[in-house]
Amino acid sequence: MAYLDHAATTPMLDEALEAYVATAREVGNASSLHASGRRARRRVEESRERVAAALGARPSEVIFTGGGTESDNLAVKGIFWARRDTDERRRRVISSAVEHHAVLDAVEWLEQHENAEVGSLPVDGSGRLHPDALRAELAEHGDRAALVTAMWANNEVGTVQRIGELAAVSAEYGVPFHTDAVQAVGQVPVDFAGSGVAALTVTGHKLGGPVGVGALLLGRDVAAVPLLHGGGQERDVRSGTLDAAGIVAFAVAVEAAVKGQQEYAAGVAELRDDLVRRVREAVPEVVFNGDPTDRLPGNAHFSFPGCEGDALLLLLDAQGIACSTGSACSAGVAQPSHVLLAMGADDDRARSSLRFSLGHTSTTADVDALIAALPGAVERARRAAGARTPR
Amino acid sequence: MRVLAAMSGGVDSAVAAARAVQAGHDVTGVHLALARNPQTYRTGARGCCTLEDSRDARRAADVLGIPFYVWDMADRFHADVVDDFVAEYAAGRTPNPCLRCNEKIKFAAVLDRAVALGFDAVVTGHHARLGPDGLLRRSVDVAKDQSYVLAVLTRAQLDRSIFPLGDSTKAQVRQEAAERGLAVADKPDSHDICFIADGDTRGFLAQRLGETPGDVVDATTGAVVGQHAGAYAYTVGQRRGLHLDRPAPDGRPRYVLSITPKTNTVTVGPAEALEVATVRAVRPVWTGGPRPSGPVECEVQLRAHGVVVPAAVTVDDGTLDADLRHPVRGVAAGQAIVAYRPDPAGDVVLGSATITG
Question: Domain locations in chain A?
């Protein structure tokens, strides 16, 4: 079994799993006033400090959530509502065309239900956003802008954006800037305060923590209207009983991922470069997608001309190799990647793509297994794309 | 063998896949997404194209421990089945979309892709027998028999098909599903047409073809006896819903005898005028042995779940003609004629063709 889908989810770190189990054994609601409650609260607050320290934020800027999708929704909708409430005209949400659906669909929902207007920033052929495009957008619509949202690193093609430059442009116009950094934390250096962003999404299961817990880092002076109403546990911006065990494990994982980032990135990039070189040797006509240098260290993304990605996935899966075609609809149908389409790829290239993503448990043996299976799978998939058996 | 099990989310295809696993095959489950937007088609347990069905299929695959994927066949399905269905009605014929789906999707687009990907055969939950002799036979459960909608398959298609359910009744299949812990054991049967959400075929056609009012003409007198909103909404042999302005002179019921798209006319007449003794059909397929050079005595079925009539059938490259031993009513162009050879071990499908008149 070669698991080459770490960008979808990566195995939990042992220390995170142990911290989870140890905390989950303890009873206590962090909002309770007695000793058990205080113990749970202490675990949560210690975790908040660890996350804040690892990511360059203040503890009060860490809002624990149920993961990346919730953090993105809270940032996009919450900041939109807060900005519009203070100034009726601020109804424009500016996002890039290559965002994750957690952002794209939240923006689309605002457009359909909250009378938002949408500004979509183009990317170049490598998936990169250019500060000039944002500057042009804000020069024209800055007085109506509620927020800008752009991901730190792309989940599909791995292109890393120059978030600091983009956030600086946004700051010139006084518009809060949110970034979805779920793919970036632990892979590239991420510093909340240093980047100048107003809000940042991070999630546990992409960096060795559990699924279902994450955080929105929200600048102290940035207002957001809550999505979830109730006990107001998290700065009155997010309600729900605090998941102490999940939060503790998340904090352990964030700390470990950030501390080990440089060494991890160097090692995994070397393995990834090896994978890319060998895939190119095995399938010379392959197209490598995304930025060649400014990319996530574990990400390799290709289009295989003449193949359908879902056929390749099936064939590799049968050989014990796990990879990804991008997103699928709720029924499970593979969709052509909106990211590749935004990068100027045609429908065929978008449908023929596969992502291999390496992580902290990846080895040369995983790459060996892929290279052994790939040429045969590509040949088969190519035949299947034009197949008609005689009858 | 490496086989691909087409899993609709219903009980039949789940048990068929289970039996393929039990027979020792290396089975992969595939659910076909046929709706362009999965929520627009029939919801609930009656159709074949919903999110619930895709989930049910996935859960059955989980229980069987086989890999499972969803294949997007929506565009092909629309072009080859839905658009064809509308065009056939517009041309005054009565299509059978299940038959067309077997011919063009399940045992063509899906089978072709499966073979190219290295699979040896496709497994489905159709109620029909296909033994080592390569002959397609009726299911032991005559009421559930689906050999009629499979008779369009060619030799090459049958050679790569496996129908594990033909020796079982539907009741046995349901019981086996329950014993195997498949949650779909008591899921209601699908029926009607999966892509017509509310079962209103006439409304579905009207939406696509628009209102085209025309005359309903009595075949005996030539008189205009009523108006219709679109000739495509009628099928030969239909009695209900004619909305005739006046009763026939003899006071007996009137039936649709023919539909003429060119003049947008629906012709009605008495029951006996519906009777035909010869049937002409095109695009013949002959899989029950070598194609006969002269007339062959057999039985023919002229619509799904229709009666069986003794006949002498003559077939050549492009046509199939049947002389019926006694006349039958309600033979509609567009339906299939299927020739069977009676056999105690299950009537054998000899061949089929599309009725033209």
Answer: 2-8+260-385, 14-259
| Nearest to B138, CA basis, from B6, B288, B3, B295 | B288
Task: Please give the tally of structural domains in chain B.
Answer: 3
Q: What's the ipTM?
A: 0.86
Q: How far is A324 from chain B (nearest CA, A)?
A: 13
Contact A332 B70 (CB under 8 A): yes
Residues of chain B contacting residue A329, judged by C-beta atoms under 8 Å apart: 38
Examine the fold and report which residue of B186, B220, B255 is the final residue of a domain before the chain moves on: B186
| B49: nearest CA partner in chain A | A331
Mean pLDDT across B207-218: 91
Which residue of the set A1, A329, A331, A365 is catalytic?
A329
Q: In the sheet where A353-357 sits, what is the strand order?
A: A287-288, A299-303, A353-357
**A331–B155 C-beta distance less than 8 A:** no
- Chain A residues whose CB is inside 8 A of the B32 CB are none
- Å between B116 CA and nearest CA of chain A: 5
Contact A315 B117 (CB under 8 A): yes
Cβ contacts of A318 on chain B, cutoff 8 Å: 28, 67
Residues from chain A contacting residue B118 (CB–CB below 8 Å): 315, 380
CATH number for A14-259: choose from 3.30.200.20, 3.40.640.10, 3.30.300.130, 1.10.510.10. 3.40.640.10
Query: Would you state the pLDDT for residue B245?
Result: 76
Quick one: CA dihedral B50, A346, A312, B161, positive or negative? positive
pLDDT of B141 over the 70 cut: yes
Both structure tokens of B287: 């899989």
From the candidates B112, B152, B155, which should be mutated to test the interface with A, based on the most A CB atoms within 10 A?
Answer: B112
Instruction: Report the candidate in A70, A60, A77, A57 with the shortest Cα–Cα distance to residue A246.
Output: A70
Q: Of B239, B273, B307, which marks where a domain is finished? A: B273
Residues B234 and B312 in one domain: no
Under an 8 A CB cutoff, do A331 and B157 touch? no
**C-beta separation of A213 from A64 below 8 A:** yes
Determine, for residues B112 and A317 on separate chains, whether the beta-carbon distance falls below 8 Å: no
d(CA B156, CA B127) in angstroms, rounded, equals 20
Give me A326's structure tokens: 């991008």
pLDDT value for B42: 40
Which position has the token pair 């495009």? A133
Catalytic residue among B48, B49, B98, B194: B194
Kindly identify which residue of chain A lies nearest to residue B35, measuring between CA atoms. Answer: A331
List chain B residues with CB under 8 Å of A390: 156
A2-8+260-385 fold: Aspartate Aminotransferase, domain 1 (3.90.1150)
Would you tell me how many other CB atoms lie within 10 Å of the CB of residue B240? 7
DSSP β-bridge partners for residue A200: A179, A217
Residue A129 — pLDDT band, cuts 50, 70, 90? very high
For residues B168 and B218, state if they share a domain. Answer: no
Q: Over 70: is that where the pLDDT of A390 sits?
A: no
**CATH number for position B255:** 2.30.30.280
DSSP of A157-176, one letter per residue?
A: T-BBP-HHHHHHHHHHTT--
Please give the biggest Cα pair distance in chain B. 67
In a domain, B41, yes or no: yes
Active site residue B48: no
pLDDT higher than threshold 70 for residue B295: yes
The CB density around residue A135, as the number of other CB atoms within 10 Å, is 16
Contact A387 B112 (CB under 8 A): yes
Residue A55: pLDDT band with limits 50, 70, 90: very high
Residues from B in contact with A at Cβ < 8 Å = 28, 31, 33, 38, 51, 54, 58, 67, 69-72, 74, 111-113, 115-118, 154-157, 160
Both B101 and B221 in one domain: the answer is: no
Task: For residue B121, give its domain range.
Answer: 2-125+164-186
The answer to whether the CB atoms of A333 and B33 lie below 8 A apart is: yes
Q: What is the mean pLDDT of residues B138-162?
A: 96
If asked whether residues B335 and B245 sit together in one domain, one would say no
At B46, the pLDDT band (50, 70, 90 cuts) reads: very low
Average confidence (pLDDT) over B6-14: 95
